[in-house]
Amino acid sequence: MEIRAMKFGALIFATDYSIPLDELAIELEQRGYESVFVPEHTHIPVSRQSPWPGGADLPPEYWHSYDPFVSLAFAAAATKTLKIGTGICLLPQRDTLVTAKLVASLDRMSAGRFIFGIGGGWNKEEMAHHGVDYEQRFHRMEEQVLAMQRLWTEDSAEYQGKFVNFTASWLYPKPWQTPYPPIILGGETDYTLKRVVRYCDGWLPRARDGFDAEANMNRLRHIAASAGRDMQSLSVSVFGAPSDPAILAGYRAAGISRAILPLPSVSREKILPILDQYQALLETQAP
Hints:
Blueprint: E1 7-11, H1 21-31, E2 35-38, H2 61-64, H3 68-77, E3 83-90, H4 96-109, E4 114-119, H5 124-129, H6 137-153, E5 157-160, E6 165-169, E7 183-186, H7 190-199, E8 202-204, H8 213-227, E9 235-239, H9 245-254, E10 258-262, H10 268-284
Parallel strand pairs: 1-2, 1-10, 2-3, 3-4, 4-7, 7-8, 8-9, 9-10
Antiparallel strand pairs: 5-6
Helix pairs in contact: 1-3, 1-10, 3-4, 4-6, 7-8
């Protein structure tokens, strides 16, 4: 089997106390990274009833993060080739029409460099403040994606569903990329993979609990084959990939499309040494 080149991205919570994202984007582009991804939370309710999947104590960057579309616009304006992505956009908490406009605008103004990473979210209280039923978030998200795909590809689009409804409407500009920016979905369950195969362009699993690249790629292949979906049309981007050369080599051998290395929400002076450490990884993993 031919081993294809694996791209490298970086992820960071862009906050009011970390390196400005436009400055980081310039550093990443100069160092040969393909992409940068930012997560989002509109706010974090103080009640903290929902347990954080990452552990007991929620890091402060979760409630200090900038809006992803605003911060990514700054990153795009400061660079020429670096792809910019949401990792992830909490789509069920967002208005469908407004988000469709944001995605199309950012993709067009960046000359087709946007990657639309989406997910259902984990914080029930945050979601409730947006008027979203936690148990219905994935049904809502699917309707939102299908509706936006129409808005991005049709001159006059309409959608009637349980959660998304609008009559025939014009929404311009259209995205730069055709038919629209790649939509990649976060999550690790079989339900996630079925959603990826059904209405997305790629999978965005987290590198946690000893992510087995080969086993997970086989899992995706099986589900794609069962649904009649061509694997060549699906990308796999591992979110928070470890800085271990052997593991990354295994990712590449398994056919992973993109390894997204994590960066802490810290100042420029603290970020640059980490990028220096990562640089050898990018060079040794070149095909």
